[in-house]
């Protein structure tokens, strides 16, 4: 399953956060993905491979425009 996500995208993970929220915002993209819980603000950093296994769907995809 290939998900299109980037910096600022809102995603839903397979498991909900203990605070009860299941929506996360991507705050860093690279070899590791950093996500922030939209319920309580807690941040978690995951390796990209692990993140791709745990993601359920992309709710809000951010479009990046190329500057020339």
What does this 3D model show about the protein?
The protein has a five-stranded antiparallel sheet, covered by helices on one side. The protein has one helix at 48-54; strands spanning 10-13, 23-28, 32-37, 43-47, 55-60. The longest helix has 7 residues, at 48-54. It contains one helix and five strands; from the N terminus they run E-E-E-E-H-E. It has 68 residues and is mainly beta. The chain has a domain at 19-60. A hairpin with a 3-residue loop joins strand 2 (23-28) and strand 3.
Number of strands: 5
Largest sheet: 5 strands, antiparallel
Number of helices: 1
Assembly state here? single chain
Short recap of the structure:
This protein is mainly β. Helices cover 10% and strands 40% of the residues.
SSE blueprint:
Layout: E1 10-13, E2 23-28, E3 32-37, E4 43-47, H1 48-54, E5 55-60
Antiparallel strand pairs: 1-2, 1-5, 2-3, 3-4
Relevant terms:
68 residues; mainly beta; 5-stranded antiparallel β-sheet; 1 helix; 10% helix; 40% strand; globular
């Amino acid at each position: 399953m290939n998900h299109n996500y980037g910096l600022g995208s809102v995603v839903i993970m397979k498991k909900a956060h203990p605070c009860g929220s299941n929506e996360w915002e991507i705050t860093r993209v690279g070899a590791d993905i950093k996500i922030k819980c939209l319920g309580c603000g807690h941040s978690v950093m995951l390796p990209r491979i692990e993140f791709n296994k745990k993601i359920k769907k992309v709710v809000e995809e951010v479009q990046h425009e190329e500057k020339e």
